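Annotated sample (chain length 430).
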Amino acid sequence: MVRAEQRADQREEILERRRREIDTGEQKLGRREAELTEQREQLTSERARVDTELERIANLSQDAARAELLAEVDGEISAEIAERIRDADKRVREEADERARHVLSLTMQRYSSDEAGEASVTVMHIPSDELKGRIIGREGRNIRALEAATGVDVIVDDTPEAIVLSAFDPVRREVARVTLERLFADGRIHPARIEEMVAKTRAEVGQRIREEGEAACQELGLPNVHPELQTLLGTLRFRHSYGQNILAHSKETAALCGMIAAEIGYDEQAAKEAGLFHDIGKAAEHEIEGSHAFIGAEILSRLGRPATVVHAVRSHHYDEEPRSVGAFILMTADAISASRRGARREALAASIKHIEKLEDIATSFAGVERAFALQSGKEIRVMVRPEAVDDDHAQILARQIARRLHAEGSYGGRIKVVVLRETRSVEYAK
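Output written by the structure step:
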């Protein structure tokens, strides 16, 4: 019993001691809180005093200082944003140019076609000069009948074994040429036979024109083309522009359009159709007034071709402002086809002069025996005399020729100069 009371007294003492400790801790916390409150008030007062002093020194209110600081920061940020925008725009343009060059180079590398070589007049070879008299006929009746039936001027001169067929319409020249070939083979040359043969030949040439147009559409995978459109397309087989056959140019442009469209994700079918029919107005431009772009667009619209194709054809020479990707694809492909080396007679002549100039520059150096320009002037191979040029000098000569070509300043791109030195040892067994 006594022990229980002692333990109870001990617990009360412990509780009382802890109570006193808690009271002491609360008093300390109260004093600490009071000190913190006093310090907070002092800091607030000091901050207000510092702000007042800064406003006095800077002669600016707090709001005005804040506005000035924000304006300064905004100016710095605006300049940085503008610089970043310019950098991004420059980067985008460079990437776009690089992508465009890549697409066009791929397209031009993938397509290869013939060079211009057909003349604007038809020179027809005949088996012998004796046939010239039979072509003219008694008092010129045969030649007059042929000219009246075909609409072609037949020029018979002193050129050996040749006559010239001249007419504005190349289809008429083709009819006259085929008619004469058949008359020579048949042997009967008189006005009635001439008229009969011209009628037959004209029908066959018309059929050939339709077949040419149909074959072009099939070659490029364009189904359901109106027969009238196929006929006009086939007529382009007998028309030329600066020596370039227009049907061949149209097919080439269509192929290039399809390749460019495939590279950039555009509708290949629509692009190829616009390329194939872009010069269709040239098949009828001598009958209808207006530019061939507008004439072709009206023909395509009347025959039910898609509006995107019609717009591309109408605007491919800026007769109308181009507003679609297809229009720009067509203009690009048309320019590639027309301006490539050898495509047209003028370009072919310039290309030949360019190559001759390269060879002349190379052969002007001492020790050079011959020079050959290859790949349309992108590479030149120089043959040197081994007794005049050693191996070390051959390298120097290649550099000298390259510098001379660079100094000319009229050759775009790079020209590879290859100097070849060949030594042969010959002996005879007796």
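Annotation: The two ends are 150 Å apart (CA to CA).
Annotation: Strands lie at 122-125, 153-155, 162-166, 240-241, 244-245, 368-374, 379-384, 416-421.
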